[in-house]
Amino acid sequence: MSPLISAILFTLLPLATAYAVLDQRAGAVVPKQPLITPSPTLQHAVTKTVHRRGILDDVKGDVNGILSDLGSSIPSYVASGVPNFFQDFPVGQDAQKSLGIDDDQVDALPTSVLNIPGYGNWTDRGWNLRFHGNVYKQPPTSQEKLDDLANIFLIDTDIKDLAPDQQAQARNLTASIFVLQQDNENVTFNLRPAPTAGASGEQGGGGAVTPNGGNQQVRFPYPTTSQGDFDAFVQIESDGLADGNSTSDIQRLNVYTEGSNIGNATAYLVPPTGFSIISDIDDILRITKIYQPKEGLLNSFARPFVAWKNMPEIYANWSRSIPNLHFHYLTTTPEQITRNYMDFIYKTYPGGSFDTRPLNFSDVSATLSIRKFLLDKVFETFPKRKFILMADTSNSDVMKDYPQLAKDFPGQVQCIFLRNTSATDDGDRFPYDTSGFQDLDKNTYMFFKVPVRSYPLISFP
Known about the structure:
Blueprint: E1 5-8, H1 57-63, H2 66-70, H3 76-79, H4 92-99, H5 103-107, E2 111-116, E3 119-123, E4 126-137, H6 143-153, H7 164-177, E5 180-181, E6 188-193, E7 216-219, E8 229-235, E9 251-257, E10 264-269, E11 275-279, H8 293-301, H9 311-321, E12 325-334, H10 338-348, E13 353-357, H11 364-381, E14 386-392, H12 396-408, E15 413-419, H13 421-424, E16 445-448, E17 458-460
Parallel strand pairs: 3-10, 11-12, 11-14, 12-13, 14-15, 15-16
Antiparallel strand pairs: 1-17, 2-4, 3-4, 4-5, 4-8, 6-7, 6-9, 9-10
Helix pairs in contact: 6-7, 11-12
């Protein structure tokens, strides 16, 4: 057993404000072996029923009468925590048709790659690194056309009414939506030791160390899907990397896509044991307000991303206080607009791996199923690691999936922290369902209102 790490200063609000249920501790569990988990493929869309009631007695008073006040015309995407501007983005021929370009024009365009920061695990075969992203072409589009397309997503707002910097961001984001995904493409990556990634205030950005080796070229073994996606674990050569069974360090590698100057990312080789944070982004790490569609749209498409309160300080404190802590950022935002999220995180929070929504998960029901799929993937890949889960109450899939993980993977969920958005933002008037927490140990989760700089909340064995 590792030494006691006593100074975990995560520190939200005092425990007296947490909403608790009965104490039922899970028994000891023999860890499974790490898996090379499959890439996400939507077989059947999962139908999600949004439970608008069923809140614990402690919380009922906060939302009493809300639905009757709002009436019956509640948008399903808001009640689900999935804004409609994150749905039904055009792909393939639909995007090409929207832009009014022909096949010959497409053929003449250079190929680009969205390379999403991945994670790797250690098995008896060595290091296996997950490569995932999308291959596409970016067609040239006039400002007038981009403005027309951007206005499709804006609610009660015309792009011409925005400030110049917000107009530019809206056009850039719109351009990233109207790209042309490329199927049956082969991708090659070059790996190099990464000196830095992230912004924790530590040398290197936090969350990992720079390895002594790892230089190599990796040809991804499969062509891209019909929607341009690639996602698989690939065994890589050690070549100076520390073995996962002999180090507790998380090793950081730069991943350069051959033939594309924007297809670069940072990957993290994560040892079998230790602690990982899996963190949502919207309305917990940044101000989004997805429960207010107009504001959520402007905060996502036009306005600069802004951190929520002092969460960067909280995460930096975690990174400094907990040795070899792995940060994994998971958002159900679609791939096409992921770059803004990654840029914001790496400039504001400790460096870490990423998961986003692949293109074949496009409608609301599929979006609600992809989070659980990606969460399961991480847990199955690291069956001996302990996890801290962070999100907010505005996502119905989080409210179901997080407590279910504690039941599906006994002993792995160290704690769950959920910002109570309806208690901290009067714009969120939608009740949330906490029934999934009723059978969990009351010491393993907390609903909080405001993050506080320092409070000795938990310690890890």
